[in-house]
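Hypothesis: this fold can be encoded by more than one sequence.
Test: take the structure tokens below, design a sequence, compare later.
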């Protein structure tokens, strides 16, 4: 377990170092996950070595949200003071996200080709 945890934390550290050195606009742990993906694609046998540790982390993932919950509780007064701004930001962000998603889907659907139109079915008794 310790070697696998060391490997995961080393990749996270490598991602953080690369982000800071290169000034990339992404979080270091995200780049670390990309490095982990590349490593697992290059050496699939490492998956078996990392799987027990990663399964253990995933089983206790909810514990990683405790610090965030404590931070929210510590700033309840501020959240109350800025509730309107937070609500507007959440609502606007949701609607903007939906609109961008709809626009993207609409822009990409024609690339797949239009499905054939269903055949016209004659109505009994002819046209009316």
């Amino acid at each position: 377990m310790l070697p696998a945890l060391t490997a995961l934390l080393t990749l996270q550290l490598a991602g953080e170092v690369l982000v800071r050195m290169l000034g990339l606009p992404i979080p270091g742990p995200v780049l670390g996950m990309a490095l982990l993906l590349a490593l697992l694609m290059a050496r699939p046998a490492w998956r078996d070595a990392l799987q027990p540790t990663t399964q253990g982390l995933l089983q206790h993932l909810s514990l990683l949200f405790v610090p965030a919950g404590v931070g929210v509780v510590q700033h309840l007064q501020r959240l109350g003071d800025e509730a309107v701004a937070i609500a507007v930001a959440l609502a606007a962000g949701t609607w903007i996200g939906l609109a961008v998603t709809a626009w993207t889907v609409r822009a990409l659907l024609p690339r797949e080709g239009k499905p054939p139109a269903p055949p016209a079915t004659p109505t009994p008794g002819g046209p009316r």
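The chain has six helices and no strands. The mean pLDDT is 87.
Hypothesis status: open.
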